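Before relying on records like the one below, remember that each one covers exactly one chain. Contacts with other chains, cofactors or solvent are not represented anywhere in the record.
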Amino acid sequence: MDDQRLSLYAELINKLLKCPSGEQNTILNAHPELLDEGLVAAMQHYSETLRQQGTTDAAGFLENLGQQISEFIRQGDSPQEPPSAERQQAYVDLIQLLLACQVGEEQRILEAHSELLDQGLLRMCEQVAMGLVEQHNQQAAAWLRSFAAQLANGVPAAKASHSIEQEAFLMQLLQTVADSNGDPASVLSLLSANLSLLNTDLAALLSNWFPGAIEQADEGQRQALAAVLDNLGSLLQEYQLGSSRSNLLIAIEAYTNALRVYTEAELSQAWAITNVNLGIAYSKLAPFSENPKQQIENAIEAYTNALRVRTEAELPQAWAATNFNLGNAYLELAPFSENPKQQIEKGIEAYTNALRVRTEAELPQAWA
């Protein structure tokens, strides 16, 4: 990709970040020649940079907009003109219902307003989310963006089946991980060439495929498949392009399925390592989830499982590292807990355990 095109992408992204809420479609329609996967990749790169700088709201905006553009590209379409004022108000009313409803009522509300489930609703979700951020209501904005990302897999414009293409990609991805023994260069190159297929549908496809695959395999093949999934999960956790949320959900699905093979009774060390990786993935997912508390609790459960194998007596360094992760998770849980003091105390206990091994004399950097 030449420098001139990268410069055009950067200019367009800056316009989108600076424009008033609701003008994004007008700007995109004025630059149809730039609406391609290169723009999506540039948006993801910008979003990761913004997130590292602590500008999470702008990062979330770019990630969501990039997903919508990628969906338009897959359909051979381009962003459409805004719907009528009446329909836009209907979108806003529906979104307000969703924000105000009790947990679990979302599906009933969506079914009662099925005529509004289209790409226009998704765009309005982003506009409302930006307004919530301006009102300093980041929690509601994060929930709405996450909900819209899930909804995107079910609205009419996204119903075209890509299952055959996605299944072929999954098989190619797993084969590449296996052949390269998890070499990042080979795998990440393949991921970057297929960003539009790297979404939550892939996580569901993996979950549906793996049980049948291990049923037909002998024990050696089962363990090899589990190792491939473990490597895939670790690569996806660190992957910088695409949707961070989707990457983490696929990684979690990979680890969870690997644990169908790695059991505590028969493959205890692999089971413990995969549980630690799973815990890290859940912790990373929490900021992208409408229910961060649940993800952090999942992480704590995974770390606690690993500590059944990673004992102080037999694996002191691994035990200390896992306790450190556990301490972090308890501190992350505290703001969401009815008893934050208790979570902080548990975090302190885990850190104190880690310091029994990470001593100033032997491991000064880790101790510090």
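Residues 156-162 have pLDDT under 50 and may be disordered.
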